[in-house]
Amino acid sequence: MTTPADVHDVRDPEQPGRLLTIERDALIPLLRGRAEEDFARPVAACPGWTVRHVLAHCSSALTRVAEGRFEAGVFSPESNDQDIAEREGWSNGRVVDELERGLGEAGSVIAGADGKLDGLALGEWVHAGDVREALGEPGAYGGAGLPDALALLARITRERGHVPLHADLDDLDEPLRLGESGGERPPGRFIGDGPTLVRLYAGRPVDGGAYELAGVEAKELNIFG
């Protein structure tokens, strides 16, 4: 018999791209309506970066994926800083334009990369949550893309042999199984909502959200640290 957990282990190649296009349709109109000074707001999840820095990082990363440019050192901190610096003279509107294209075009390349770039799609979606939070907008690390993000997170953590966790989420009817112990460690337990779970796995502040975590420490869950 196939269980819900087994179904999640089967890679849906369209899922990362679908997550990105859902976020494109939600985030881009929000950015188009913001004042210029909002792009200079600091992003707490990315010390030293403003909203514009995060957007420039995301747009450049997605453009690299869409164009298949993966030279040595790509996506390293130094490469990220260089990408942001190359866009220093761009208007905010031009950065948003590039981000819109990247969110729409990168999915097909990610789909054909046999899972190697799936984590990048999840990371870009998390950064969109960072931006929403910096702008004081609701829906950070949630919204219409949350079901795909959670399924992607579950599969990635299992493929990486991450610390095992069973999550009972307000957002899903069935428990979500994350990580893989190989029987060496009993799974931890999370009770709460999906955005809070994403925050924990992304190493973002939980800000007093109501949740229960047992059998594992929050710092063990971070997949981007």
Straight-line N-to-C gap = 36 Å
- Provide the spatial order of strands within the biggest beta sheet: 2-1-3-4
| Low-confidence runs | 1-8
The radius of gyration is 17 Å
The coarse silhouette is: globular
Query: What is the residue-mean pLDDT, rounded to a whole number?
Result: 92
Largest sheet: 4 strands, mixed
Taken as a percent bin, the fraction of beta residues is 5-15%
SS class: alpha+beta
Helix count equals 9
List the helices and strands in order: HHHHHHHEEEHEH
Percent of residues in helical segments? Answer: 40-55%
Number of beta strands:
4
Structure description:
The chain is an alpha+beta fold. The protein is built from nine helices and four strands. The chain has helices spanning 4-8, 15-32, 51-67, 77-86, 92-111, 118-134, 146-159, 194-202, 218-221, and strands spanning 165-169, 176-178, 188-192, 212-214. It has a four-stranded mixed β-sheet with strand order 2-1-3-4. α2 packs across α7. It is globular. InterPro entries: DinB/YfiT-like, Maleyloyr_isom, MDMPI_metal-binding.
